[in-house]
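BUG: 3D viewer hangs when loading the predicted structure for this chain

Environment: internal workstation, default settings.
Expected: structure renders.
Actual: progress bar stalls at 90%.

Input used:
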Amino acid sequence: MTDIGGRPRRRDGRKRIIGAVAAGLVVLGVVAAIIEPYANDWWVARNACGGALPEGVLEDMGAKPMDDDRHLYRHEDEVDGQLGRYRCEVNDGDSGRGYRFRASAYTAQEDVRRHLSRDFSGHEPARLALPEGLPGYESQRGDLVLTLDCPQLGKGADGRSRKLHTRAHVPGYFGDDESGDEPGAGASYDAGARAAVAFANKASQNLRCGAEPLSVPEKVARPEPVPLRQTAGTPCAVLARAPLRPERAWSAEVRMSRSAPVGSCLVERNGHGTGSGQVAEGTEALDLTAFHGEFADGLWRAGGREKPWVSGSQGWATARCHGTDAAFRIRALGGDGEAPVLSAGKMRSLLAGFAEQQAARRGCSEPHVPSRVTAERPAG
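Structure tokens produced before the viewer hung:
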């Protein structure tokens, strides 16, 4: 038996589809070299990722004014049911070397654990929940990650329900720190997030996960900072009464979700001469983050501590949420030469309020908050 293009069909459970082509390869009897660019755009957009992508998203991804005439080149889908992997990539440019959208999905426990370990280890673990209540987060490099339960796959060797882990990336978007001023970053984020949701639904079908389909939002706005007083009534409401110095203008970015394994409340010191709170004009000063899942316990223990702690620069509290670990972190940031935004005692108080609020939102046990401030590093 042969696959598209006359190649022998693989016998290892993988299915690979190339749609639209490099010079010389024939798809459905049409030579790509003579297809009109706009017709090829339509064909690729219609068939990429099994035809699951919302209309128009590929036009908005990575869009910049100078790229108005950049056309799509081809798409490539590959499913490996035996390994529990699915991949979709859309190429653009005359040679097909660039990419417009790239996404991958995994159901094997070792694959899922490997990616989670990369995202939630080291000094800078992932911390930004996706907007619109989506069950996912941004990785440190700006990958849009979604994780869903797979009822059709049963439980793994550890007795836990199997998961579908998907990762989507849009060229030119590398998270808020590097993409804040990029032209078209907001449109790319919206398109990328919507495409990521559609891809996750398709991956669930292709890998026989059986996850409850996600609704693809009509729009996913990239969160922008707001004045601290506007955090009242949000998952970051603890910041509305934070004891920050009143002579400075402060803003906050709310990146929390009940369904995401991680979420943050980010406090920013606005730049001189402005109270807008825009990313490019401020300096991040304080970070409150909630971590949920098997990786949470290892994060605060990484410094060699035996129990949760609070120092002058950061602190941790813990809880149990429906049989899994949760960890809550406060961290003073900056490096612009100014004094710390809070004393160690006030940091502990703010951490306690944050941990209690997040534990209540998730139905967790009463959080364990350190009773006093300790040294920066563990003894010995």
